[in-house]
Design goal:
The complex is a heterodimer. By secondary structure, chain A is of the alpha/beta class. Chain A is built from 12 helices and 14 strands. Chain B is an all-alpha fold. Classes of the chains: A alpha/beta, B mainly alpha.
């Protein structure tokens, strides 16, 4: 009798524990629904994700003080790991740069790019994009004393940004008399701005907002330009992968996880400036329909 | 997983004026740097070989610093650190200057070795004929030692040209590699752009080496020509 009682208690405890674990685990991962697209076979076989992320772009992808990958993009990757394998740590992060991320994907070194990548029609010829999971706005960072604004005043000025970025192409197309100083990372461009080599740095709000907040010598102009949605990079033509990624992003959107992830990653004083940049149950982001819309002047 | 890559070469042509300008810039910074490093190599190499006090020791420090630090660190120091103490070099200047500084250090060693390989009897003969030390160097040590240093210099000079690929992207100077990264980033055509880039460098470095070998053959010492 005693034995039966003990067994019952153990079973009850185990059952309770299991139930609690199920509740804590994300809906998509622990309770597989028949309707959701299945995990692509290659990933299932490898038993982990290989995801390319930025390592120098806080708060989206960076290395934290303990040496771990951290940020908004990293937490999305960890959600993918939960969805696929039931826990957050089944993912190997590879640091990629703006220049190396597409080659890393097309050469098969990584399964996905989650690295602050703006959708462009040109890139979409080489890789597939998931549905958008963030939208960045272009901002101009200038020295505190500067009166520079986006527009005609840019003529004869030097603007620094990263080579091949939408800002590079936009300035080349719309501000023909503006000189460009193009680096491989926004951090180097920032160093050039601080050295006085450029009159302003154009980049995603995600990067320059943090800089303007922490650096008393710099400020942002009130201009907002080139709203560019980011997507997750997928090997061209891998439909199973795209379906899986899009369906899981839809779950995160429905659960309003993007806003929660954002809140965990941005400085509380900057949260308001960022909060309209993520998809929510009520806000669906869209990619520009044509190449013209991507870089519309004025 | 499908890895079918559909090759598209048309964008190379669409960007041909940008690429040609970049090619010219690569040539420009490399040739200035090669000429400069040859001058540095001959002058400071001679100072090392002749053990001229102070200059020789300072040169040794310069050579050791450059040869034992990565070129990228040198470039970043010149481009991003010097402005902190008020020296802001424009991209073009920073590009050829850092290349020249790097090539110069290696050239010093090439020429020092060349000059030291000149048998001292030759120099003594020059001095015995009443030449000053400088004239002995110009008429005896340089023509012979310079030729001995040429094969090693081919290596150094082609490395200077190849290192322009590191310098350009680092200092935002639109030479071949910087421009290729820019086109790559805008188009995502990895294979095509790196293939074309590789061909460009192959032709450039091969032509440079061939030129110097031609020079070497023209200048061959009479006893070697036999």
């Amino acid at each position: 009798m005693k034995r039966v009682l003990v067994a019952t208690i153990v079973a009850a405890l185990a059952g309770g524990g299991f139930a609690a674990w199920s509740v804590a685990a994300p809906a998509g991962g622990a309770t597989p629904t028949a309707k959701l697209p299945p995990l692509p076979a290659a990933i299932k076989q490898a038993k982990r994700w290989r995801i390319g992320v930025k390592c120098d772009t806080p708060p989206f992808g960076y290395i934290d003080l303990e040496g771990h990958n951290a940020g908004y993009d990293i937490q999305i990757a960890q959600w993918f790991s939960r969805f696929a394998f039931g826990r957050a740590n089944r993912v190997t992060f590879t640091c990629v740069t703006t220049a190396s991320r597409i080659p890393a994907l097309t050469s098969g070194k990584i399964d996905l790019i989650i690295a602050t990548m703006t959708f462009t029609h040109a890139r979409a010829q080489t890789i597939d994009f998931s549905s958008p999971y963030y939208v960045a706005t272009g901002r101009l960072l200038v020295p505190k004393s500067s009166s520079l604004r986006v527009g005609g005043a840019l003529a004869g000025k030097t603007i620094t940004t990263t080579g091949g970025s939408i800002y590079d192409r936009w300035v080349t197309k719309c501000f023909k008399n503006t000189k460009l100083l193009l680096f491989q990372s926004p951090t180097l461009a920032l160093a050039a701005l601080k050295d006085g080599r450029a009159d302003g740095e154009m980049f995603d709000d995600s990067f320059v907002l943090g800089v303007a907040t922490s650096d008393p010598d710099l400020k942002l102009t009130p201009d907002h330009f080139l709203r560019g949605p980011w997507g997750i990079g997928i090997v061209k033509g891998n439909k199973a992968m795209k379906k899986w990624v899009d369906s899981r992003l839809a779950i995160l959107k429905r659960q309003n996880q993007f806003l929660k992830i954002l809140k965990r990653n941005v400085n509380p004083t900057l949260f308001d400036a960022f909060k309209n940049n993520v998809p929510t149950p009520k806000r669906t982001l869209k990619y520009p329909a044509t190449e013209e819309d991507e870089l519309a002047c004025g | 997983m499908t890895l079918a890559y559909d090759f598209q070469w048309s964008f190379i042509w669409e960007n041909h004026s940008l690429l040609l300008q970049a090619l010219w810039r690569t040539l420009e910074i490399s040739l200035i740097a090669i000429a400069g490093s040859a001058v540095i190599g001959i002058v400071l190499g001679a100072a090392r070989a002749a053990r001229i006090p102070v200059v020789s020791q300072l040169t040794a420090v310069y050579v050791e610093v450059i040869r034992n630090t990565p070129i990228l660190v040198q470039i970043f120091f010149i481009f991003f650190a010097l402005p902190e103490i008020g020296i802001t070099l424009p991209q073009f200047t920073a590009a050829w200057f850092s290349l020249m500084l790097w090539g110069g250090a290696f050239s010093v060693e090439n020429f020092r070795a060349g000059f030291e390989a000149v048998p001292h009897e030759y120099r003594e003969a020059g001095l015995a004929l009443g030449f000053s030390r400088l004239r002995t160097f110009i008429h005896v040590t340089l023509p012979i030692g310079g030729r001995i240093a040429l094969p090693a210099s081919i290596n150094t000079f082609s490395s200077v040209l190849k290192n322009s690929a590191i310098v350009g992207p680092a200092v935002a100077y639109g030479e071949l590699t910087h421009t290729s990264f820019r086109i790559l980033e805008a188009t995502g055509r990895t294979f095509e752009i790196f293939f074309v880039l590789g061909v460009f460098y192959l032709v450039l470095v091969w032509s440079l080496s061939a030129l110097i070998r031609l020079l070497e053959a023209r200048l061959a010492l009479p006893e070697e020509a036999r």
